[in-house]
Amino acid sequence: MAKPPASLRQLTSQFGPHLNYTPAGGWREESTHPYHLVKTHCCFCGQQCGIQLKVEEENQRVIGFEPWEEFPFNRGMLCPKGVKRYLQSEHPDRLLDPLMRAEQGFRRATWEEALDLTATRLRDLQEKYGKDAVAVYGGASLTTEKTYLVGKFARVALGTRHVDYNGRLCMVSAGHAYKPAFGVDRSLIPWEDIPKAQVLLIVGANIGDCAPITTDYVWRCRDNGGKLIVVDPRLTPIARNADLFLPVRPGTDLALLMAMLHVVLRDGLENRDFIAEHTTGFEAVAESVKAWDPRRAAEMTGVPPENIEKAAHWFAKAERAIALHARGIEHHSKGVENCTAVINLCLATGQIGREGTGCSMITGQGNGQGGREQGQKCDQLPGQRQIDDPEARRHVASVWGIGEDEIPGKGLTAEEIMEAIHRGEIKGLLSMCFNPIVSLPDANFTREALEKLEFFGVIDFFLSETAQFADVVLAGSLHEEEEGLSCSAEGRVIHIQKAVNPPGNARADCSILCDLARRLGKEKYFPFTSMREILDEMREASRGGVADYYGITYEKVDRQLGVFWPCPTPDHPGTPRLIEGGKSFHPDGKCRFRVTEWRPSGDPLDENFPILLTTGRVVSQYLSGAQTRRIGELTDQYPNPRVEIHPRLADQHGIRDGDWVTVTTRRSSVTLQAMVVKTIRPDTIFIPYHWPFDRSVNRLTHRTLDPQSKIPEFKVSACRIQKAERPPEWWLEREAESNGSKPVEGRKRA
Amino acid sequence: MFGYEFYVDPSRCIGCQSCMKACEECETHRGKSMINFDFIDRRETIGTAAYVCWHCDDPTCAEVCPADAIKKGEDGVVHSSLKPRCIACWNCVLACPFGIPKEVPEYEQMMKCDMCYDRTSTGKRPMCATVCPSQALAYVRPEEIASRREKPSNTFYFGEQRVTTKVFMMVPPEQNSVSIDVMDYIWEGEDEPVSPTERGSPLAG
User: Fold this and answer.
1) What pLDDT band is residue A750 in, cutting at 50, 70 and 90?
2) How confident is the prediction for chain A on average, in pLDDT?
3) I need a labelling partner for A553 at 20 to 30 A (CA). Which of A503, A736, B102, B113 fits?
4) Is residue A660 domain-resident?
């Protein structure tokens, strides 16, 4: 049993989240404290903006930042997370030693005992229940080398097939659409193409909040005369300037997209030459959208039929059009279909393979792109190779120096691993860079599962809400404490520089994994003494694959300010635009249309649950908030999740702005404050997801997965709302603690 | 910085507040943001606006200061009050037509945006305009701003008061000035005083 070893209140007071407002040593005159600047990148989100960290010479610690204007992607621009990212360094909550579960709470441990216990327990569980009784979770905020090591560690050191990562909650639906269509899972465009489009179709992407720097590219497109079409159930900051805003009902994007293709074909706007020369499967798709006239789609989506027609006409008639999409269409039980429908639209209109055309998932997680390329996905080996491809297995086995049969087969995905834990099939878990109690759907279920683990080891730099359930917490390293590669949303491989050493007895993540491998008797496969050695092996492992990194070195990335993969040879400049000239990565060079089929959401509305609940993010928080809920200014900007409700819906329930509202789904209830705004559909409410436990919207969401990508359907749940009689317990407790002043967590040293 | 100008375009603002966070990092007012930021009316719109000081050619704040504490430099930058002179009387806070100066109680002093004097005087762009993800705040050359949809204007009418500024507001292309007074759009009969702007729409001045 792995219930947290102390109360939430005790653990929070010891390990945070506490709010850090000022740099190490407080606000000071920098001139009296000499510093140097380290050119690196922001760790919060897939834009991977260039930033310079200020490192104090005297104490070698990060004390601030300076924009990095030469880096071409963001040219100095940063969102509030980037500006304040440096405050995670030297944070009072930072784990400085390994921790082990004690009678009451956690106690500090030595590395010897913590690593010994972890290796022993994992090995014992595997001996008793079989290799696959242990699973490994990785994360998409890790550098690409680390994700490579996570995959190799699971498959070689532990020999389990169950390794997956939190990118499963990000853009996997896009990956499962792009890979079959184009043979590659990456944005087809470099971002510099965006301002060159005449029409931008942005579907399910709240760019202003979730990919802030991309806003400038969108506005520059408009400056050039480009038209902006935004499809979103909320009037987001970019929708405000849309030339055409389609406020789609959550869960019906597919109807809208199929109707757009219907209009294109009905009106003869397809690009016949492109279809004939560069694609397969057109006829079946054409047949499949015949039934989707705009009138039928309008009834499902709540978008006027003439605006569906207009969107289709603009997109098809433009000389150059780009479609951008993100979690808004991917977090669905038909997420792959949604993305496929975007691809079909681009293929049918020939808006692909030229400057200023194409489509892209706007990858959200820090290294969301690199994290899905080099082998921590349960179905992939390094280089985006499929794990069931015999040729791929041969190549990777030879690089690793093991037998082909020794590489386990395809394992379970992230949510499926949690379900297997709940069923008692998986008994042990090692997790790095993942906070599933916040980020997986149906959080009460996740909690039950975590409590069933016989052994739970965590590698992390803070005691995340999930780590509270651990038996051992191995104090790992922050982004700025280890060198490595990362890959941004546009497919640009960049170089994360080490700025400082891990503090106290915290250690570099890679050395932790290598030490565990040694204790598991697999030392000879993990002989690494530097990140460069891991990169060199990864380059070999990726060589000849789709995500070919063979020609990428740290020096080359520094020289070119990023290298777009594939980059197969040292003298290759990289590949900013994919599918150039319509040529895909498939052996026949063709792009593939694929038929999409309508099906309803996994959590249907009925008379008890008549309102749609959709979830998302706010600009000041990153993912599960494990880092950003510890930064004072970012937390103050949006301290607690609020329920966005349209005045019409609010009036029906007697709810006013600021009232407490209980939101109930088939899983659970949560009570939060209402934010009455006209910027959301009146049949839908929105709650952002970055908070744990009593404030977690993921207690309300459901575990329906897309059958192909296994992404959970975060964007559509059925709910009801009711004005609450009184504020919830979590609010009252905080109010009591803060003696009536504004309830925030205080700044304390752990 | 020579050849660069400051432009404000609320139509580009996404409300991320990066400007405020970055402003606080300045060595001269650490932990305090000098940006004026508003949610215009969150119930009705997602619209937000972030402003810096407009750095008026004839700054009202300086004109009303009884202690002569507010100085304008030769480059047109209007500075925060001089600490030894400022008496924290609030005259400037109340008089500024844009509502920019703020009295900071801890310092008993008026502070405001000085367009990152420490940065611009050493060849760096102001912090807010450097980081702004939507470039709603931009510090660029005039030829760069000329490629935008909106056009720069630095003439404002507050009723009868005409104010020209160093910082530019981006306005619809056919507009040359911004009028803030509703009176400018009202018809009160044949013999009303001549209004400084053409009547009609605020967007057609």
Assistant:
1) very low
2) 96
3) A503
4) yes
Task: Supply the CATH number for residue A286's domain.
Answer: 3.40.228.10
Domain boundaries along the sequence of chain B = 9-51+122-136, 53-112, 144-204
Looking at the complex, does the CB of residue B112 fall below 8 Å from at least one CB of chain A? no
**Does residue A548 carry a pLDDT above 80?**
yes
Find the CB nearest A676 among B30, B43, B148.
B43
By Cβ distance, the residue of A31, A79, A219 closest to B16 is: A79
B203 CA: distance to closest CA in chain A (Å):
16
Residue A22 with chain B: CB contacts under 8 Å? 31
Q: Is residue B140 very low, low, confident or very high in pLDDT (cuts 50, 70, 90)?
A: very high
Q: How many CB atoms lie within 10 A of CB A698?
A: 28
Output Rg (C-alpha) for chain B, integer angstroms: 18
Domains B9-51+122-136 and B53-112 share a fold: yes
**Is A52 part of any domain?**
no
Mean pLDDT of A616-642: 97
pLDDT of residue B203: 46
CB A691 within 8 A of CB A12: no
Q: What angle do CA A22, A27, A29 make, to 5 degrees?
A: 155
* Exposure string over A180-202, b if 16+ CB within 10 A, otherwise e: bbbbbbbbbbbbbbbbbbbbbbb
pLDDT, residue B177, reads: 85
- Among the three residues A517, A547, A574, which one is the final residue of a domain in this structure? A574
Q: Residue B86: which residues within 8 A CB-CB, separation 6 or more?
A: B67, B69, B108, B109, B110
Of chain A, the percentage scoring pLDDT greater than 90 comes to 95
* Structural domain total, chain A: 3
pLDDT at B201 over 60: no
Question: What pLDDT is recorded for position B205?
Answer: 35
> In degrees rounded to 5, what are phi and psi of residue A730?
-60, -30
CA distance A472 to A136: 14
Q: Which ipTM was obtained for this model?
A: 0.94
CA distance A84 to chain B (A): 7
pLDDT at A724: 97
pTM for the predicted model, two decimal places: 0.96
A517 and A623 part of one domain: no
pLDDT in tens, A420-477: 999 999 999 999 999 999 999 999 999 999 999 999 999 999 999 999 999 999 999 9
**Token pair for A388:** 């069931």
B119 at interface of A, judged by CB pairs closer than 8 A: no
Query: Closest partner residue to A80 among B11, B21, B130, by Cβ?
Result: B21
Put simply, whether B172 touches A (Cβ < 8 Å) is no
A403 domain-assigned:
yes
Instruction: Tell me the pLDDT of chain B averaged across its residues.
Output: 89
Determine how many CB atoms are found less than 10 A away from the CB of residue B64. Answer: 15
Q: Among A100-109, A695-704, A727-736, B111-120, which stretch is predicted with the lowest mean pLDDT? A: A727-736
Range(s) of the domain holding residue A325: 188-361
Q: Look at residue A244 and tell me if it is in a domain.
A: yes
Cβ of residue B138 closer than 8 Å to a chain A Cβ: no
CATH classification for the domain delimited by B53-112, as one of 3.40.190.10, 3.40.50.2300, 3.30.70.20, 3.90.1310.10:
3.30.70.20
Q: Are residues A559 and A630 in the same domain?
A: no
Does B132 reach chain A within 8 Å, measured CB to CB? yes
Q: Which CATH number fits domain B9-51+122-136: 2.60.120.10, 2.40.420.20, 2.60.40.3500, 3.30.70.20?
A: 3.30.70.20
Q: Using the beta-carbon criterion (under 8 Å), do A76 and B131 form an inter-chain contact?
A: yes
Question: With contacts defined as CB-CB under 8 Å, which chain B residues touch A675?
Answer: 42
> What is the DSSP track for A254-304?
HHHHHHHHHHHHHTT-S-HHHHHHHEE-HHHHHHHTTT--HHHHHHHH-S-
Q: Which residues of A touch B17 (CB under 8 A)?
A: 80, 619-620, 637
Contact (CB<8Å) A65/B11: no
On whether any CB of chain A is under 8 Å from the CB of B25, the answer is: yes
The per-residue pLDDT for A744 is 47
Q: Residue A384: which of A397, A375, A394 has the closest Cα?
A: A375
A76 and B125 in contact by Cβ < 8 A? yes
- Exposed (0-12), middle (13-18) or buried (19+): which is A583, by Cβ within 10 Å? middle
